[in-house]
């Protein structure tokens, strides 16, 4: 059975994005390359890197706008180009009723129910499945107990408003697997999920 891993930045008051769609909700993020490097190495030791990425439409548009330009920019920093290439190689499944012909390679669009789709996807052969951002996907999958690991990058900011990550999700107990703090004030928390 494939593992589903959620990775999200969250503010101290539980928001995963601001309401500023122009900036794709990232106004209060505190970037830190050390955090990105650390999160990239998490997962099951010896297991292959995730090969599938689940995205909601808004997160997909933000990712496409942010990462695709690095693929063709000769002046792009090598680490950013490497991430862009890795994301491009991954199968990106976008849950959308309006997106029809995405230009980003290895992208498929579905209007299917995320819970049914992911149940089938987990049973197929392959490496782990990642979800980044995409609260509209996280919420039903968390409610259905389909998220195996939760990775939170807790940002040292009280957002004071925005998009909460788990509205309407019933209470669940998670098991802490690991944690690490960084000089930037970010803290990475790694939890194992449980069925509701």
Question: How does this model look, in words?
Answer:
By secondary structure, the chain is of the alpha/beta class. The protein has a single domain (4-192), classed as 3-Layer(aba) Sandwich (Dihydrofolate Reductase, subunit A). It is built from 5 helices and 10 strands; from the N terminus they run E-E-H-E-H-H-E-E-H-E-H-E-E-E-E. It has helices spanning 33-40, 57-72, 78-89, 114-123, 135-143, and strands at residues 4-10, 15-17, 52-56, 91-95, 107-110, 129-132, 149-154, 163-164, 175-181, 187-192. Helix 2 (57-72) packs across helix 3 (78-89). It is globular and about 45 Å long. The model has no long low-confidence stretch (mean pLDDT 90).
Please name the defining characteristics of this protein.
196 residues, alpha/beta, Dihydrofolate Reductase, subunit A, eight-stranded mixed beta sheet, two-stranded antiparallel ribbon, 10 strands
Q: How would the blueprint of this fold be written?
A:
Elements: E1 4-10, E2 15-17, H1 33-40, E3 52-56, H2 57-72, H3 78-89, E4 91-95, E5 107-110, H4 114-123, E6 129-132, H5 135-143, E7 149-154, E8 163-164, E9 175-181, E10 187-192
Parallel strand pairs: 1-6, 1-7, 3-4, 3-6, 4-5
Antiparallel strand pairs: 2-8, 7-10, 9-10
Helix pairs in contact: 2-3
Tally of separate helices: 5
Please state the CA-atom Rg, rounded to the nearest Å: 16 Å
CATH class: Alpha Beta
Please outline the major beta sheet: 8 strands, mixed
Total domain count: 1
- The fourth-level CATH homologous superfamily is Dihydrofolate Reductase, subunit A
The chain-level mean pLDDT equals 90
Q: What topology, given as strand order, has the largest sheet?
A: 5-4-3-6-1-7-10-9
Q: How large a portion of the residues is in β-strands, by DSSP E?
A: 25-35%
Q: What fold name stands as the CATH topology?
A: Dihydrofolate Reductase, subunit A
> How much helix, percentage-wise, in residues?
25-40%
Number of strands: 10
What structural class do you assign from the helix and strand content? alpha/beta
Which CATH architecture is right? 3-Layer(aba) Sandwich
Gap between N and C termini, in Å? 19 Å
**Outline:** globular
């Amino acid at each position: 059975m494939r593992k589903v891993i959620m990775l999200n930045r969250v503010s101290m008051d539980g928001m995963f994005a601001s309401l500023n769609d122009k900036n794709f909700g990232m106004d209060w993020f505190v970037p830190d390359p050390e955090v990105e490097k650390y999160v990239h190495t998490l997962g099951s030791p010896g297991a292959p890197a995730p090969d599938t990425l689940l995205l909601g439409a808004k997160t997909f548009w933000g990712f496409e706008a942010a990462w695709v330009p690095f693929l063709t920019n000769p002046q792009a920093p090598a680490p950013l180009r490497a991430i862009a290439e890795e994301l491009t190689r991954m199968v990106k499944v976008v849950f959308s009723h309006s997106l029809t012909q995405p230009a980003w390679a290895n992208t498929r669009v579905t209007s299917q129910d995320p819970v049914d789709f992911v149940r089938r996807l987990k049973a197929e052969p392959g490496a782990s499945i990642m979800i980044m951002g995409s609260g509209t996907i996280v919420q039903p999958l968390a409610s259905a107990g389909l998220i195996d690991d939760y990775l939170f990058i807790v940002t040292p900011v009280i957002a004071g408003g925005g998009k909460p990550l788990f509205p309407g999700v019933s209470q669940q107990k998670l098991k802490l697997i690991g944690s690490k703090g960084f000089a930037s004030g970010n803290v990475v928390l790694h939890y194992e999920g449980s069925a509701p």
